[in-house]
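Re-run with default settings, no changes from the original entry. Doing this only to confirm the output is reproducible before filing.
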Amino acid sequence: MIRVLLVDDQPLLRRGFRALLDAEDDIEVVAEAADGAEGLALIREHSPDIALVDIQMPVMDGIETTRRIAADPDLAGVHVVILTNYGLDEYVFNALRAGAAGFLVKDIEPDDLLHSVRVAARGDALLAPSITRMLISRYVAEPLTTVAGPGLRELTNREREAVALAARGLSNDQIAGRMVISPVTAKTHINRAMIKLRARDRAQLVVLAYESGLVTPGNG
């Protein structure tokens, strides 16, 4: 059972999302909150698998809520999926850097929302190619300033290759095809790289790949 907690200041949206999610046999909404501060308290109480968090809220916004979740070791198992009324805007980069596992617009189709919740619960990032392109363009505009950490040097050549492909927006199956390995092996390379780089999830791994210089815009 995938346990979900909703954090949004719009009651009608929370009600609609809850009805949709609770109708599924493998998903359960454990609580709702109207702002980030209340949401953070409930997340600490319930430790859900997924927190669907609105990016713009009173009291505490979604980015700060995400940042505090990511900084709490007791909430390491909580995957934050950011919700917004907008598409690609300035919030995407900050949300991913704060530790979000994904980014969804509120007018998402019901089937796509259900799929996204299940993807995030598996620990995979909700990074569409359009989001990846936006990240790359952001790095083109703003040169890298973060030096590579010691974890990067611990990666094997195959792990580096897998991370570089993930940073280009490829799925495990696509990575496996490019590296001529099985999808299970591709996922193993990604998971080991996440551990070595101390990335909470695949989304943060992608950000770290660019910040560390492992991947740069235009290479590969």
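Residues 51 and 209 are 25 Å apart (CA to CA). The chain has a mean pLDDT of 82.
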